[in-house]
Amino acid sequence: MKAPSNATPLAGRNALVLGAGVAGLAVAGALRQFGMAVDLLEQAPAISEVGAGLQISPNGVRVLRALGIDPHTIGDRADAVELRDSAGRLVTRLALPADPGFFLCHRADLVQGLETAVRATGAQVQLLQKVEAVALSSDGAQVTTSVGATHGAPLVIGADGLHSMMRTALNGPRKPFFTGQVAWRALIPGDGGPRVAQVFMGPGRHLVSYPLRGGTIRNIVAVQERQTWADEGWNHPDTPDALRAAFGGFGGPVPGWLEAVRELWLWGLFRHPVAQTWHDGHGHAAILGDAAHPTLPFMAQGANMALEDAWTLAAQLAANPENPAHALSRYAAIRAPRTRAIVSAANRNARSYHLRAPVSQLAHGVLRFGARLAPDAALRRFAWIYNHDATARTSG
Fold it and tell me: What is the pTM of this model?
């Protein structure tokens, strides 16, 4: 459902959004498109985003455009994805379509673009609002912050990430499990290389790299299988020598990239189930983004799923303005099966990147041969992800 040009079906209604990351800003912008008043609570002293690169695929690009954001202002359109073996030899190359395109973005640039668009709509942002408790009832939802302030609204949306208070309120506590993998993130000076995302696959490990900000910096994500685990989260510093040792046998440009690393972050990869319950039964509370479906990074769909969630949630409320409970039920029915399928695809990719000889040699041979027969076959395999248009979804 596209935002109406001359109608605001949610005018006079208001929502409270917990969290001003990608999911929270996107849903605030989408709700404003349909006329709803929005307040955002963010625990940080400013809306900013650490981290490094991410990829916005066509399914996410369509939502950005609906929110009034030109993807070229927050990232660079990618020309291709290359899969390479650990020696750096090309296994297969996937040329990427130009429209609507795949974009390589720094996470901070995406967040800034969303914030600018959201503030322009008149949404109100309150900083230094760390939510400590969420209370749900048939009359509404109420949150309490760390300074003892209470906030309520007819609709409270949890976009509060991996450790969501709203998710816990709806589903109860759930402990994730360690996948047996850790990941490093680093940014190094750019080399002006082509706009290509490269994946170097080795036994029990892989490394992904692509340029950002016009090639002025380069993003590196490196994943290794190990028995011991790091704390969940992505803000634990590690030494560059540890990363170099883990990928010491890799060839091609990888050694030079790793030699340029001066600062990096390590985190353990944990698997969380997609939430069983996405909303309350009264139309007062819902979750989206990582609060609903944390995912491993092996399909590059975390931000894209959050963007899809945001538009679908707003569109369903706009299609059912007098019955928010039905709108939230429709939202969950649309989004839960799709996000489960994408999370499962990411889990499978984790295994395929880490094959060991002789299985890896056979698999790489199949990919090379298949690319000669049907160059776009690998991309078509995931057309169900990339061709999706959340902004065209209508109510039912």
Answer: 0.92
